[in-house]
Amino acid sequence: MKHSLPQATDGTLLPNTVAADAPKVPAFDDNELIRTAAKVTRDLNAVRPMIYWTDLLASAVIGYGAMIAAIMIESTGLAILAGIISVLALYRAGSFIHELTHIRRGSMPGFHFTWNALIGVPLLLPSFMYEGVHNLHHMRKRYGTVEDPEYLPLALMKPYTVPLFVLVSALAPIGLFIRYALLAPLSMVIPPLRKLVVERYSGLVINPEFRRRSPEGEFKRQWYAQEIAASIWAIVLLTAVATGFLPMKAFLIAVAIAAGSVVLNQIRTLVAHLWENDGEVMSVTEQYLDSVNVPPPGLLPALWAPVGLRYHALHHLLPGVPYHALGEAHRRIAEALPKGSTYYRANHTSLFGLVAGLVRGSAGQASSTQSGTTS
After folding, report:
1. pTM of the model
2. Which residue ranges traverse the bilayer (predicted)?
3. Burial classification of residue 170, based on how many CB atoms lie within 10 Å of its CB (0-12 exposed, 13-18 middle, 19 or more buried)
């Protein structure tokens, strides 16, 4: 594991730390950080529905409006600009799927349904693909282990893994059409295929070893309703293209915009963590340090890490704080803790620096592995 907690200049361990060569058990937590973060943000846990609704609806209107403009505008330059705006807006709207997994059901009546109707089903990414999966990533003893569906030790893998991780996401729209237009209907009458679809193709995961369990209870009803809606939508779209009702140009532009949003999210995922854990159980503080904050004054993270995702490390520390309160939570914690404390060690400055660090880390790991093999 790469993250040991602070040491004194003579190498002795400070309180609540472990040596780098200690047995593979969770390190002691920085209890001051955990207590302070909980104390100063106690009043920030309530969601503000007006912010959620306004943000989602505005993002959806801008996203789809810009998509229509990209399809209809004759000027190539203006069409590309409209496409970029559409990618950013729909990416922001799509990012609310993360909030759906954390807000309590009933706190905003109709929000889950509206998000799926506006974003989830049209983009073939209904919320059941994330709900019931993402919460496993936050489980204390699952994070960073082989049981975490959203974790890969990318910093410890081959250098080509990093660009491949991003490039493969561009094919997501094709995979989603196959999943919903073909596999979903067939799986309803072929039980072995259904098992495969549920286990392997029903979750937004990056861990290839993860296998999803079949849904139960009320969630099963929600899953099936969303899946049927997405399946019908995929079949209707493909039929419209095949019959000429939907022009191929319009379809390809829409697919390119959807792919752009997925690629942007994959790049954001690439730097959401440092990906340095080798599969062992981590303490809360270690999980925090393996995650990334990109706080102000930088402005670009508001575009590539929207809806509070620029405070991803803080979110792992306080998963109950809604996205609109994370900025205030960061300010309060930073004011309450001294410079140089553990809290500041998860703060980073830019996307490019994080990607470069990940590439260097994987290249260094590959080099050391090769040296060890040949020695």
Report:
1. 0.89
2. 51-73, 79-98, 110-130, 160-182, 223-242, 248-267
3. middle
